[in-house]
Design a protein that fits this description.
The protein has a domain of about 90 residues. About 75% of the residues lie in helices and about 5% in strands. Strand 1 and strand 2 form a beta hairpin.
């Protein structure tokens, strides 16, 4: 839980950087549009559209600030720190590879997952209880020996063997054994169900991590650089009147969206790794 709060806090910083950087670019576009409007080369609606995009950015920044404050409060609570204390900026998340295979994660979870260890203890307890119920079929016996010192008279010795036979085992003992056998079967079914659920969660988070890793590479190496070049080219052409305002605005919105998507996938990648660590006890985050 602490790691997930930490990575969400790191995402709020990265996303805010993206929006603030692109806000300056949007202000530049607004100045160019106002200048073109003042000489009759741009429509008034272009100015209004740019101002609307600036307002939308401000809304997103306010929402990110709320998320930022909430994650700081969560971390302070988990660490038992004074409420409102500043935590500083976390280390920026960086792309990394997911080294272990899913089979290795399954094997580690079988050995170390707390929920499976709990169910294994329940099975052991049920087995012990059933073994104790079986012993109720055996007769109880007591062997005792006594010595009596009678002074001037000869000493006395006494030996005794007592047997307690389970005469009604078909009613009492058999019912007790049946109950413990059913409890053992239930514990084994619970263990199997927990194993299946755990494997599903591991598979789900593993797929999320690998998918997010692939998307990060696409956004970081291809989509974002290409969209940025398209925006810079269209903005330079817009100043000379070679392209229309809508093309520039569309390219700008695309750049912001793709950069935000990149950091969302980076956050999803680290959140999935932190959950996998909790389920498998394998250190995955470098």
């Amino acid at each position: 839980q602490l790691k997930q709060a930490y990575y969400r806090l790191s995402y709020s910083y990265a996303a805010r950087d993206v929006l603030e950087r692109n806000r300056e670019l949007l202000r530049k576009l607004l100045r160019i549009t106002e200048a073109r409007y003042s000489v009759g080369k741009a429509a008034q609606q272009d100015v209004f559209k740019t101002q609307t995009q600036l307002s939308i950015l401000e809304i997103k920044l306010v929402d990110l600030q709320r998320e930022h404050n909430a994650r700081e409060a969560e971390i302070s609570s988990l660490l038992n720190r004074v409420p409102g204390s500043s935590l500083g900026r976390p280390r920026d998340m960086q792309p990394q590879e997911l080294a272990p295979s899913i089979e290795e994660l399954y094997a580690s979870a079988s050995r170390n997952a707390p929920m499976l260890l709990r169910d294994q203890k329940m099975i052991q307890r049920a087995q012990i209880a059933m073994n104790m119920a079986r012993k109720e079929y055996y007769p109880d016996y007591t062997v005792s020996f006594g010595y009596f010192n009678q002074g001037s008279m000869p000493s006395m010795y006494q030996a005794r063997v007592d047997f307690k036979l389970p005469a009604y085992f078909w009613r009492k003992q058999r019912a007790g054994l049946t109950e413990q056998a059913q409890s053992l079967a239930e514990s084994r079914h619970t263990y199997a169900a927990t194993t299946q659920s755990l494997h599903f969660r591991i598979k789900d988070d593993y797929l999320m991590a690998t998918t997010s890793s692939q998307l990060m590479k696409l956004y970081g190496h291809t989509v974002v650089p290409q969209a940025t070049l398209a925006l810079e080219s269209s903005l330079a052409s817009y100043e000379t009147g070679a392209v229309d305002f809508l093309s520039v605005l569309t390219n700008y919105i695309a750049v912001v969206e793709y950069e935000m998507n990149y950091y969302e996938e980076l956050q999803n990648f680290y959140l999935a790794l932190s959950r996998l660590e909790g389920m498998t006890a394998v250190p995955l985050i470098q």
